[in-house]
Amino acid sequence: MRLTSTLFCSGMLLANAAIATPVFVNGLTISGATGDSFGTSVNDGRVGFFSDIYYDPNRNEWWGLSDRGPGGGSLNYETRVQRFSLDIDSQTGAISNFTLLQTLKFSKSGAALNGIAPNPTGTLGNAFDPEGVVVNPRSGNLLVSDEYGPSLYEIDRNTGAVVKTYATPANLVPRNSVSGTANYAADTGNDAGKRTNRGFEGLAISPDGKYAYAILQSAMLDEGAGSGKINRIVKFDTETGAAVAQYAYEMKRSGQGQGVSALVAINDHEFFVLERNNRGVGVGADLATADKEVYKIDLAGATDVSNIDLDSGASYTKVSKSAQIIDLDANTLAALGNKSPEKWEGLAIGPKLADGSYLMLAGTDNDYSVTQNGSGQQFDVYFRFSDTDPYAGSIQCPLGETSGCAWTSNGSAASLTDEYSLLPGVLHAYKASAADLAGYVAPVPLPAAFWMFGSVLLGWVAYRGKGRD
C-alpha cells in the first residue's frame, strides 16, 4: 500500500560530517485517514501512527506501534503493530514514500490483547495499551511494553501471540498501599505505584539482547505523582523475564504533562531519551508552548533503586544526563502550518548512510484524529493548519461522516471544507554523525549465528555417526 505524503526538505544537508548534534534533514506528514491491512474503520484499521518506532538492522525492517485505540480505553480495539518501509537517500538521509507492509495484531492465549481498560479493575487480564517496541536480536521476536500493568511481553513476530510475560516489579503495580488492592484502570483508590496512563512508555534493548529497559512515563503516585520529576527505568533479563535493577531518571521538570515518551539504546549503558510536554498541535491540546527534546543518558554508576523510595530523602545516584541533543520543535513542516505536533513519541536509530553517519527517525502519535464525548460517542477531528491555533479552530464530525459537523470551540454547526483535514502522522529524519553516535553498537544476533553453527555441527556429527554404522 503506497501512501501519499507531504515532503519538506531542509537546506542544511551534509554541511559537515563532524557535527555537534544530529541535523534535521526533512519531514513527512502522512494522512490521518490512512488505513492498515484491516481497512480504514477508525476502530479497526485507521492507523494511530507512532507511539514508538523501531528499526531492525538485521532484517532492514521498520516497525511502528499504535496504542490502545481511539476510544481512550473505553471501546473495543484489538491492539497491533505496523511494519512499514521508507525510501532513504543514502547520501543525505532524506526520507520519502512511507509504505505500510504488514499489520500484526497482538493476542494472548488465543484472545486479542485489547485496548479496553481492565474490568474488573483489579485484574489486568488481556487489557493492553502498547507504547514501546523493540526486536530482540536473540529470538527475532518483538518485545512490547504497556501502560496498564505496567507490562512487558515478548511477542512472536509472525503470529502476534505472546510467548513470554515479564514480571512487573511489585513496587510499580498501581495499588492502595494499605489494602494492597490494585486498580489498573484508573488512579481511584491508588496511592502507590505507577500513575494511570503513565506506565512503560519507552522501551529499549541492549545490543546483545540480554537486557530490556522499560521506562515509566513519569513519577509514581508515591514518589511525587504529577508534581514529581523523578521516574524509573527498569532493567529486565530477557532470558528469565525478571526485573534485575531499577534506576532513577530525573526529568527536565514536572507539570504540563511532562513525561518520557521513548527510550533508545546506544549500547549496553547509554541511551537516548525523548521527553515532551502535552503542548502543540493535537486532539485537545493547548498549542503553546510546545517543548519536546532528546537527551543522552548513561546508566553507568547509577544506583539500583529497586528498594529505595525516590522521594524519601534517601541517598542514591541518579542516571547521568547530558544537555539536549535534539530539539524536536526547532524544525517544523509547512503542512502543519509550521507548528509543532503535540505527541512526539517515537524515536529510533536507523540504517547507516554512505558517509558513515546514521539516520535517526522521530515520529508522532496523532490519537487517530478522534475525540469522544462523555457518552462514548466518537468524532473525527478536522484541522485547518493555517489557523493560529488549529485545535481551537477545529471541526468535529460524526465518525466517518462529513456532514452534521460542529465547531469544537462552541458546538455550533460548521461546514467542512477542503481547507480541513484529519491530524496527520509526522516523521522527522535527522542525520547523526559518527561523533553524535559515539559508542553506538547495533543489535547483533549472536545466538542466531550460534544456532546456525550448531545446526551445521549437529549435521556433521550425524553424518559422522552414519559413517560408523
**Cross-sheet strand order for the largest sheet:** 1-2-28-22-21
Q: What count of helical segments does DSSP give?
A: 1
Shape designation:
globular
Helix content: under 10%
Strand content: 35-45%
**Alpha-carbon distance between the termini?**
56 Å
H/E element sequence: EEEEEEEEEEEEEEEEEEEEEEEEEEEEH
Rg to the nearest angstrom?
22 Å
Structural class: mainly beta
Q: Which assembly state applies to the chains in this document?
A: single chain
What value does the average pLDDT take? 92
Number of strands: 28
Which residue ranges are poorly predicted, with pLDDT under 50 across at least 5 consecutive positions?
4-19, 447-469
Biggest sheet details: 5 strands, antiparallel
How would you sum up this structure, described in words?
By secondary structure, the protein is mostly beta strands. 5% of the residues lie in helices and 35% in strands. It has one helix at residues 446-468, and strands spanning 5-9, 23-30, 52-56, 61-65, 80-88, 95-105, 107-108, 111-112, 130-135, 142-146, 151-155, 162-165, 200-205, 211-216, 230-237, 243-250, 259-265, 270-276, 292-298, 320-327, 344-352, 358-364, 370-372, 378-383, 395-398, 406-407, 421-422, 425-432. The strands form 7 sheets. It has a 5-stranded antiparallel beta sheet with strand order 1-2-28-22-21, with no helix packed on it. The protein is globular.
